[in-house]
């Protein structure tokens, strides 16, 4: 038998909303920007929620925050609840007869690849409203929350459909004013790096790049680390160093000369895949969205086809800008 709603003992909903944003970004400042609050107000709300619950939700570090076990338990429940409320409210608004589809992508992919193409989506598929869910943490594909995801991985997602969208190629890029003669010189440059949620021997990071370049520094090269891949790329554009970036995310800058690739090799990582639930195979709206993403990816890959000088190499060599 269901308990009366009045028996629900919930913390203030404002604090729960602040927690969800902070947990999604793993950054109090970005959560504050999203909610139009100050970072101090976000921190105050989180502290109050932790005191009410009697346990910590975040571990504070010098470079940011991570979720505790309690935070990891609470976050998906709050994320799904708020997504469900947002979806229901969207259906109540005038014009809610229009179909809403939600796609989940990483923050960097959203900012640097998908968002610049949304105008084309509105023209190509005018009868759909696209909701963009940007998060580096994989989300569960559930009715009423997320319909489709673009994921970086091996393509095996139990219980889900998956098809390759774009290859995962990673190459060092920097401002044209940086022109290291070889890999040893590159190791002495300011290196920029970003966090990988899943790490393994095949992770396309700086240690792997130097191994494949045939260079074994006496100590691990120092790097400035960013929690957001897009921020590391922006730092490279600003001339602050060299970043090992996904070709997909820097193709425009490589084409217009804002960035260049000084040396090989190019690292091959995992591919990006379209992922959806099998029961959605006959969903016309999702079929349109998948087709649009395929067409955009195919056009992008034709336009930014890798030149012979950027193919994988075991030894470093200078690449054309």
UniProtKB/TrEMBL annotation:
<dbReference type="InterPro" id="IPR036390">
    <property type="entry name" value="WH_DNA-bd_sf"/>
</dbReference>
<keyword id="KW-0238">DNA-binding</keyword>
<dbReference type="InterPro" id="IPR005119">
    <property type="entry name" value="LysR_subst-bd"/>
</dbReference>
<dbReference type="Pfam" id="PF03466">
    <property type="entry name" value="LysR_substrate"/>
</dbReference>
<comment type="similarity">
    <text>Belongs to the LysR transcriptional regulatory family.</text>
</comment>
<keyword id="KW-0804">Transcription</keyword>
<dbReference type="InterPro" id="IPR058163">
    <property type="entry name" value="LysR-type_TF_proteobact-type"/>
</dbReference>
<dbReference type="InterPro" id="IPR000847">
    <property type="entry name" value="LysR_HTH_N"/>
</dbReference>
<feature type="region of interest" description="Disordered">
    <location>
        <begin position="302"/>
        <end position="321"/>
    </location>
</feature>
<protein>
    <submittedName>
        <fullName>Transcriptional regulator GcvA</fullName>
    </submittedName>
</protein>
<keyword id="KW-0805">Transcription regulation</keyword>
<feature type="domain" description="HTH lysR-type">
    <location>
        <begin position="11"/>
        <end position="68"/>
    </location>
</feature>
<dbReference type="Pfam" id="PF00126">
    <property type="entry name" value="HTH_1"/>
</dbReference>
<dbReference type="InterPro" id="IPR036388">
    <property type="entry name" value="WH-like_DNA-bd_sf"/>
</dbReference>
């Amino acid at each position: 038998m269901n308990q009366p709603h009045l028996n629900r003992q919930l913390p203030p909903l404002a604090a729960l909303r602040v927690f969800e944003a902070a947990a999604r970004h793993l950054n109090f400042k970005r959560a504050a920007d999203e909610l139009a609050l100050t970072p101090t107000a976000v921190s105050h709300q989180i502290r109050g929620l932790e005191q009410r619950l009697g346990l910590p939700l975040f571990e504070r570090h010098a470079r940011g925050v991570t979720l505790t076990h309690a935070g990891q338990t609470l976050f998906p429940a709050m994320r799904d609840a708020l997504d469900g409320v947002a979806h229901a409210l969207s259906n109540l608004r005038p014009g809610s007869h229009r179909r809403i589809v939600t796609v989940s992508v990483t923050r960097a992919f959203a900012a640097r690849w998908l968002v610049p193409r949304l105008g084309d989506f509105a023209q190509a598929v005018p009868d759909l409203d696209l909701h963009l869910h940007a998060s580096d943490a994989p989300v569960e594909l559930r009715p009423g929350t997320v319909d489709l995801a673009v994921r970086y991985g091996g393509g095996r997602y139990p219980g889900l459909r998956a098809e390759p969208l774009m290859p995962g190629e990673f190459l060092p890029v920097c401002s044209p004013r940086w022109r290291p003669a070889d890999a040893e010189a590159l190791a002495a440059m300011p290196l920029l790096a970003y966090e990988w949620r899943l790490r393994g021997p095949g992770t396309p990071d700086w240690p792997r790049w130097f191994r494949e370049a045939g260079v074994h520094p006496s100590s691990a090269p120092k790097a400035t680390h960013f929690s957001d891949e897009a921020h590391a790329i922006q730092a490279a554009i600003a001339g602050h160093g060299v970043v090992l970036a996904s070709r997909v995310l820097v193709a425009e800058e490589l084409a217009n000369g804002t960035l260049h690739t000084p040396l090989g090799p190019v690292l091959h990582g995992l591919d990006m895949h379209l992922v959806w639930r099998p029961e959605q195979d006959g969903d016309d709206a999702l079929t349109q969205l998948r087709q649009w993403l395929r067409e955009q990816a195919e056009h992008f890959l034709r336009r930014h086809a890798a030149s012979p000088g950027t193919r994988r190499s075991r030894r470093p060599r200078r690449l054309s800008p």
